[in-house]
Protein backbone atom coordinates (compact mmCIF):
# COMPACT_ATOMS: atom_id res chain seq x y z
CA UNK A 1 0.00 0.00 0.00
CA UNK A 2 2.93 2.28 0.67
CA UNK A 3 3.65 2.82 -3.01
CA UNK A 4 0.11 4.02 -3.67
CA UNK A 5 0.21 7.71 -4.23
CA UNK A 6 -2.80 9.80 -3.40
CA UNK A 7 -3.01 11.06 -6.98
CA UNK A 8 -3.24 7.50 -8.32
CA UNK A 9 -6.18 6.88 -6.02
CA UNK A 10 -7.82 10.04 -7.36
CA UNK A 11 -7.18 8.96 -10.91
CA UNK A 12 -8.74 5.55 -10.34
CA UNK A 13 -11.86 7.00 -8.81
CA UNK A 14 -12.15 9.03 -11.98
CA UNK A 15 -11.50 6.17 -14.39
CA UNK A 16 -13.87 3.84 -12.58
CA UNK A 17 -16.61 6.39 -13.09
CA UNK A 18 -15.69 6.54 -16.76
CA UNK A 19 -15.10 2.88 -17.58
CA UNK A 20 -17.55 1.31 -15.11
CA UNK A 21 -16.75 -0.98 -12.24
CA UNK A 22 -13.93 -3.45 -12.81
CA UNK A 23 -15.01 -7.11 -12.62
CA UNK A 24 -12.91 -9.66 -10.63
CA UNK A 25 -12.22 -11.63 -13.79
CA UNK A 26 -11.53 -8.62 -16.00
CA UNK A 27 -7.99 -7.97 -17.15
CA UNK A 28 -6.26 -5.85 -14.54
CA UNK A 29 -6.34 -2.18 -15.54
CA UNK A 30 -2.71 -1.73 -14.48
CA UNK A 31 -1.77 -3.46 -17.71
CA UNK A 32 -0.06 -6.50 -16.11
CA UNK A 33 -2.00 -8.96 -18.28
CA UNK A 34 -3.25 -10.81 -15.16
CA UNK A 35 -6.84 -11.01 -14.04
CA UNK A 36 -7.89 -8.17 -11.78
CA UNK A 37 -8.55 -10.57 -8.85
CA UNK A 38 -5.03 -12.04 -9.19
CA UNK A 39 -3.36 -8.67 -9.41
CA UNK A 40 -4.30 -5.23 -8.10
CA UNK A 41 -7.50 -6.36 -6.33
CA UNK A 42 -5.31 -8.70 -4.26
CA UNK A 43 -2.72 -5.99 -3.68
CA UNK A 44 -5.42 -3.64 -2.46
CA UNK A 45 -4.70 -0.84 -4.90
CA UNK A 46 -4.35 -0.17 -8.57
CA UNK A 47 -1.13 1.20 -9.91
CA UNK A 48 -1.02 2.45 -13.46
CA UNK A 49 2.02 1.87 -15.60
CA UNK A 50 3.51 4.90 -17.34
CA UNK A 51 2.64 3.36 -20.71
CA UNK A 52 -0.98 2.81 -19.71
CA UNK A 53 -1.32 6.35 -18.38
CA UNK A 54 0.17 7.70 -21.59
CA UNK A 55 -2.34 5.72 -23.64
CA UNK A 56 -5.32 6.78 -21.52
CA UNK A 57 -4.39 10.49 -21.54
CA UNK A 58 -3.92 10.49 -25.27
CA UNK A 59 -7.09 8.54 -26.08
CA UNK A 60 -9.27 10.37 -23.65
CA UNK A 61 -7.94 13.93 -23.81
CA UNK A 62 -5.52 14.09 -26.74
CA UNK A 63 -2.77 14.94 -24.22
CA UNK A 64 0.70 13.68 -25.12
CA UNK A 65 2.64 12.99 -21.93
CA UNK A 66 6.36 13.68 -22.20
CA UNK A 67 9.21 11.26 -21.48
CA UNK A 68 12.61 12.08 -20.03
CA UNK A 69 14.22 12.71 -23.45
CA UNK A 70 11.36 15.03 -24.45
CA UNK A 71 11.66 16.96 -21.21
CA UNK A 72 15.39 17.44 -21.82
CA UNK A 73 14.60 18.74 -25.32
CA UNK A 74 11.98 21.21 -24.09
CA UNK A 75 14.32 22.35 -21.33
CA UNK A 76 17.03 23.14 -23.92
CA UNK A 77 14.52 25.15 -25.95
CA UNK A 78 13.54 26.89 -22.71
CA UNK A 79 17.13 27.88 -21.96
CA UNK A 80 17.40 29.45 -25.38
CA UNK A 81 14.07 31.25 -24.92
CA UNK A 82 15.28 32.75 -21.63
CA UNK A 83 18.57 33.81 -23.20
CA UNK A 84 16.61 35.58 -25.95
CA UNK A 85 14.42 37.37 -23.38
CA UNK A 86 17.51 38.49 -21.41
CA UNK A 87 19.06 39.91 -24.56
CA UNK A 88 15.86 41.77 -25.44
CA UNK A 89 15.68 43.18 -21.92
CA UNK A 90 19.25 44.49 -22.13
CA UNK A 91 18.45 46.30 -25.39
CA UNK A 92 15.04 47.77 -24.57
CA UNK A 93 15.11 51.57 -24.85
CA UNK A 94 12.67 54.47 -24.90
CA UNK A 95 12.27 55.51 -28.57
CA UNK A 96 12.79 51.99 -29.91
CA UNK A 97 10.34 50.60 -32.48
CA UNK A 98 8.79 47.24 -31.62
CA UNK A 99 10.07 45.84 -34.94
CA UNK A 100 13.60 46.21 -33.57
CA UNK A 101 12.71 43.62 -30.93
CA UNK A 102 11.59 41.29 -33.71
CA UNK A 103 14.97 41.67 -35.40
CA UNK A 104 16.85 40.80 -32.19
CA UNK A 105 14.68 37.75 -31.53
CA UNK A 106 14.82 36.51 -35.10
CA UNK A 107 18.60 36.81 -35.40
CA UNK A 108 19.34 35.22 -32.06
CA UNK A 109 16.93 32.36 -32.73
CA UNK A 110 18.50 31.54 -36.09
CA UNK A 111 22.05 31.96 -34.75
CA UNK A 112 21.29 29.25 -32.20
CA UNK A 113 20.01 26.80 -34.79
CA UNK A 114 16.38 27.24 -33.79
CA UNK A 115 13.18 28.33 -35.54
CA UNK A 116 10.87 31.11 -34.29
CA UNK A 117 7.50 29.37 -33.87
CA UNK A 118 5.37 32.54 -34.27
CA UNK A 119 6.71 33.33 -37.77
CA UNK A 120 4.01 32.30 -40.28
CA UNK A 121 2.05 30.55 -37.52
CA UNK A 122 -1.53 30.77 -38.85
CA UNK A 123 -0.35 33.75 -40.85
CA UNK A 124 1.36 35.64 -38.02
CA UNK A 125 3.93 37.77 -39.85
CA UNK A 126 6.75 38.14 -37.28
CA UNK A 127 9.03 36.07 -35.03
CA UNK A 128 7.82 37.35 -31.66
CA UNK A 129 4.74 38.88 -30.05
CA UNK A 130 5.30 42.35 -28.55
CA UNK A 131 2.35 43.80 -26.64
CA UNK A 132 2.55 47.34 -25.22
CA UNK A 133 0.35 48.85 -22.44
CA UNK A 134 -3.32 48.28 -23.39
CA UNK A 135 -2.29 45.50 -25.77
CA UNK A 136 -3.06 42.17 -24.09
CA UNK A 137 -1.21 39.73 -26.36
CA UNK A 138 -0.34 38.83 -29.98
CA UNK A 139 0.97 42.33 -30.74
CA UNK A 140 2.65 42.38 -34.15
CA UNK A 141 6.07 44.08 -34.03
CA UNK A 142 6.06 47.18 -36.24
CA UNK A 143 6.37 50.96 -36.20
CA UNK A 144 5.00 51.55 -32.68
CA UNK A 145 7.59 53.56 -30.74
CA UNK A 146 8.12 52.62 -27.09
CA UNK A 147 7.51 55.59 -24.76
CA UNK A 148 8.89 56.38 -21.32
CA UNK A 149 6.80 54.48 -18.74
CA UNK A 150 5.45 51.84 -21.14
CA UNK A 151 5.07 48.21 -20.13
CA UNK A 152 6.11 45.82 -22.87
CA UNK A 153 5.34 42.10 -22.98
CA UNK A 154 7.73 40.04 -25.10
CA UNK A 155 6.58 36.47 -25.82
CA UNK A 156 9.09 34.10 -27.41
CA UNK A 157 8.73 30.50 -28.58
CA UNK A 158 11.78 28.92 -30.19
CA UNK A 159 11.66 25.44 -31.74
CA UNK A 160 14.95 23.71 -30.99
CA UNK A 161 15.58 20.19 -32.32
CA UNK A 162 11.83 19.88 -32.83
CA UNK A 163 10.90 20.92 -29.27
CA UNK A 164 8.90 24.06 -28.34
CA UNK A 165 9.24 26.18 -25.18
CA UNK A 166 6.93 29.17 -24.66
CA UNK A 167 7.80 32.00 -22.28
CA UNK A 168 7.04 35.68 -21.81
CA UNK A 169 7.74 38.58 -19.47
CA UNK A 170 6.42 42.10 -19.15
CA UNK A 171 9.21 44.69 -18.93
CA UNK A 172 9.19 48.30 -17.78
CA UNK A 173 10.79 50.79 -20.13
CA UNK A 174 11.95 54.07 -18.61
CA UNK A 175 10.22 55.10 -15.39
CA UNK A 176 7.07 53.09 -14.65
CA UNK A 177 3.92 54.68 -13.24
CA UNK A 178 2.62 53.45 -9.89
CA UNK A 179 -0.32 51.72 -11.55
CA UNK A 180 1.98 49.92 -13.99
CA UNK A 181 4.15 48.72 -11.10
CA UNK A 182 1.09 47.51 -9.25
CA UNK A 183 -0.38 45.65 -12.23
CA UNK A 184 2.92 43.97 -13.11
CA UNK A 185 3.45 42.84 -9.50
CA UNK A 186 -0.09 41.42 -9.36
CA UNK A 187 0.33 39.58 -12.68
CA UNK A 188 3.62 38.02 -11.55
CA UNK A 189 1.98 36.89 -8.35
CA UNK A 190 -0.87 35.37 -10.40
CA UNK A 191 1.59 33.23 -12.36
CA UNK A 192 3.34 32.25 -9.14
CA UNK A 193 0.06 31.19 -7.51
CA UNK A 194 -1.03 29.33 -10.65
CA UNK A 195 2.26 27.39 -10.76
CA UNK A 196 2.00 26.56 -7.05
CA UNK A 197 -1.19 24.58 -7.75
CA UNK A 198 0.61 22.24 -10.15
CA UNK A 199 1.08 18.75 -8.70
CA UNK A 200 -0.24 15.28 -9.54
CA UNK A 201 -3.79 14.78 -8.30
CA UNK A 202 -4.71 18.46 -8.52
CA UNK A 203 -6.90 19.51 -11.41
CA UNK A 204 -6.67 22.06 -14.22
CA UNK A 205 -9.45 24.13 -12.63
CA UNK A 206 -7.34 24.61 -9.49
CA UNK A 207 -4.84 26.68 -11.47
CA UNK A 208 -7.33 29.17 -12.87
CA UNK A 209 -9.15 29.30 -9.56
CA UNK A 210 -6.00 30.40 -7.72
CA UNK A 211 -5.16 32.98 -10.39
CA UNK A 212 -8.58 34.59 -10.72
CA UNK A 213 -9.22 34.63 -6.98
CA UNK A 214 -6.08 36.67 -6.37
CA UNK A 215 -6.45 38.94 -9.41
CA UNK A 216 -10.05 39.78 -8.58
CA UNK A 217 -9.31 40.34 -4.88
CA UNK A 218 -6.86 42.97 -6.08
CA UNK A 219 -9.56 44.64 -8.20
CA UNK A 220 -8.09 43.45 -11.51
CA UNK A 221 -9.68 41.23 -14.17
CA UNK A 222 -8.65 38.04 -15.97
CA UNK A 223 -8.79 37.75 -19.77
CA UNK A 224 -10.97 34.79 -20.85
CA UNK A 225 -10.34 34.57 -24.60
CA UNK A 226 -6.74 33.37 -24.38
CA UNK A 227 -5.56 30.49 -22.22
CA UNK A 228 -2.49 28.45 -21.37
CA UNK A 229 -1.93 25.29 -23.40
CA UNK A 230 -0.06 22.03 -23.69
CA UNK A 231 3.28 22.60 -25.41
CA UNK A 232 6.46 20.75 -26.36
CA UNK A 233 5.84 18.68 -29.49
CA UNK A 234 3.78 21.50 -30.98
CA UNK A 235 3.02 25.18 -30.30
CA UNK A 236 -0.48 24.63 -28.96
CA UNK A 237 -1.46 21.14 -27.79
CA UNK A 238 -4.31 19.95 -25.58
CA UNK A 239 -5.23 20.67 -22.85
CA UNK A 240 -6.29 24.30 -22.51
CA UNK A 241 -5.37 25.93 -19.21
CA UNK A 242 -7.85 28.75 -18.45
CA UNK A 243 -6.73 31.43 -16.01
CA UNK A 244 -10.13 31.37 -14.30
CA UNK A 245 -12.06 28.36 -13.08
CA UNK A 246 -13.40 26.34 -10.24
CA UNK A 247 -11.44 24.48 -7.64
CA UNK A 248 -11.55 20.69 -8.11
CA UNK A 249 -12.83 20.82 -11.68
CA UNK A 250 -11.21 19.63 -14.88
CA UNK A 251 -8.63 17.05 -15.92
CA UNK A 252 -6.42 15.52 -13.21
CA UNK A 253 -2.77 16.60 -13.49
CA UNK A 254 -0.36 13.67 -13.90
CA UNK A 255 3.43 13.44 -14.23
CA UNK A 256 4.72 14.10 -17.75
CA UNK A 257 2.17 16.79 -18.61
CA UNK A 258 3.81 19.95 -19.95
CA UNK A 259 1.77 23.11 -20.40
CA UNK A 260 2.01 26.86 -20.18
CA UNK A 261 0.44 29.09 -17.60
CA UNK A 262 0.23 32.62 -18.98
CA UNK A 263 -2.25 34.86 -17.18
CA UNK A 264 -3.24 38.10 -18.91
CA UNK A 265 -4.43 40.51 -16.24
CA UNK A 266 -6.16 43.84 -16.89
CA UNK A 267 -6.21 46.81 -14.56
CA UNK A 268 -9.74 47.56 -15.75
CA UNK A 269 -12.42 45.36 -17.24
CA UNK A 270 -11.83 41.92 -18.77
CA UNK A 271 -13.40 42.61 -22.19
CA UNK A 272 -11.16 42.60 -25.24
CA UNK A 273 -11.13 43.82 -28.81
CA UNK A 274 -9.06 42.62 -31.77
CA UNK A 275 -7.40 45.30 -33.92
CA UNK A 276 -7.84 45.46 -37.69
CA UNK A 277 -4.51 43.65 -38.15
CA UNK A 278 -6.49 40.54 -37.16
CA UNK A 279 -4.09 39.67 -34.30
CA UNK A 280 -3.47 42.33 -31.68
CA UNK A 281 -5.80 41.90 -28.69
CA UNK A 282 -6.37 45.09 -26.68
CA UNK A 283 -8.44 45.90 -23.61
CA UNK A 284 -11.87 47.19 -24.67
CA UNK A 285 -11.68 49.94 -22.03
CA UNK A 286 -8.11 50.94 -22.91
CA UNK A 287 -6.77 49.95 -19.48
CA UNK A 288 -3.28 48.50 -18.98
CA UNK A 289 -2.77 44.74 -19.38
CA UNK A 290 0.22 42.63 -18.31
CA UNK A 291 1.26 39.00 -18.82
CA UNK A 292 3.85 36.52 -17.61
CA UNK A 293 4.22 33.00 -19.04
CA UNK A 294 6.25 29.91 -18.23
CA UNK A 295 6.31 26.33 -19.53
CA UNK A 296 5.61 23.98 -16.62
CA UNK A 297 6.24 20.23 -16.22
CA UNK A 298 4.17 18.12 -13.82
CA UNK A 299 6.66 15.97 -11.86
CA UNK A 300 6.08 12.99 -9.52
CA UNK A 301 5.88 15.27 -6.52
CA UNK A 302 4.98 18.68 -7.87
CA UNK A 303 6.23 20.75 -10.76
CA UNK A 304 9.30 22.07 -12.46
CA UNK A 305 9.49 25.11 -14.71
CA UNK A 306 11.23 24.36 -18.01
CA UNK A 307 11.54 28.14 -18.53
CA UNK A 308 12.38 29.18 -14.97
CA UNK A 309 12.76 32.77 -13.84
CA UNK A 310 12.20 34.51 -10.52
CA UNK A 311 8.64 35.55 -9.76
N1 LIG B 1 3.17 32.73 -27.70
C1 LIG B 1 1.74 32.82 -27.69
C2 LIG B 1 1.27 31.90 -26.59
O1 LIG B 1 1.72 32.07 -25.50
C3 LIG B 1 1.12 32.46 -28.99
C4 LIG B 1 1.43 33.39 -30.08
S1 LIG B 1 0.70 32.87 -31.51
C5 LIG B 1 1.32 33.98 -32.62
O2 LIG B 1 0.52 30.99 -26.78
F1 LIG B 1 0.98 33.56 -33.77
F2 LIG B 1 0.83 35.16 -32.34
F3 LIG B 1 2.62 34.01 -32.50
CO1 LIG C 1 1.66 30.18 -24.70
CO1 LIG D 1 3.74 32.58 -25.43
Any overview of this molecule?
The protein has 311 residues and is of the alpha+beta class. The protein has 7 helices and 17 strands. It has helices spanning 6-19, 40-43, 50-61, 68-91, 98-111, 178-196, 204-217; strands at residues 115-116, 129-132, 135-137, 151-156, 158-160, 163-164, 167-172, 221-222, 228-230, 237-241, 258-261, 264-266, 272-274, 281-283, 289-291, 294-299, 302-305. The strands form 6 sheets. A 3-stranded antiparallel beta sheet has the order 1-5-6. The chain has a 3-stranded antiparallel beta sheet with strand order 2-4-7. It has a 3-stranded antiparallel beta sheet with strand order 3-14-13, with no helix packed on it. Strand 5 (158-160) and strand 6 (163-164) form a beta hairpin. Helix 4 (68-91) packs across helix 5 and helix 6 packs antiparallel against helix 7 (204-217). The chain is elongated, with a radius of gyration of 21 Å. The structure holds 2-amino-4-trifluoromethylsulfanyl-butyric acid and cobalt (II) ion (2 copies). One cobalt (II) ion binds next to loops.
Keywords, please?
three-stranded antiparallel β-sheet, binds 2-amino-4-trifluoromethylsulfanyl-butyric acid, alpha+beta, binds cobalt (II) ion, 17 strands
Please estimate the helix content: 25-40%
Q: How would you sum up the major sheet?
A: 3 strands, antiparallel
Q: In one word, what is the shape?
A: elongated
Number of helices: 7
What value does the average pLDDT take? 94
Strand line-up in the sheet with most strands? 1-5-6
The termini sit apart by: 38 Å
- Specify the oligomeric state: single chain
Q: How many runs of DSSP E, i.e. beta strands?
A: 17
Estimate the strand proportion.
Answer: 15-25%
Sketch the topology as an H/E string, one letter per element.
HHHHHEEEEEEEHHEEEEEEEEEE
Radius of gyration: 21 Å
Structural class: alpha+beta
Low-confidence stretches: none
**Small molecules bound:** 2-amino-4-trifluoromethylsulfanyl-butyric acid, cobalt (II) ion
Amino acid sequence: MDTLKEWQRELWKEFNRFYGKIGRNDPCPCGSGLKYKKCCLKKGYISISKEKLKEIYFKRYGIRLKEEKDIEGIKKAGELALKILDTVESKLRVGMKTEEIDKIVHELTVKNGAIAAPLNYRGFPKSVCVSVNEEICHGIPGKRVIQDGDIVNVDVTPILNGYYADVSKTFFVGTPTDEAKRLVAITKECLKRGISMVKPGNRIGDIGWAISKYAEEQGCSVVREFVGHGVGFDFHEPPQIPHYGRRGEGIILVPGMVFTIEPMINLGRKEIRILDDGWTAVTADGSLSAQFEQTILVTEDGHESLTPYEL
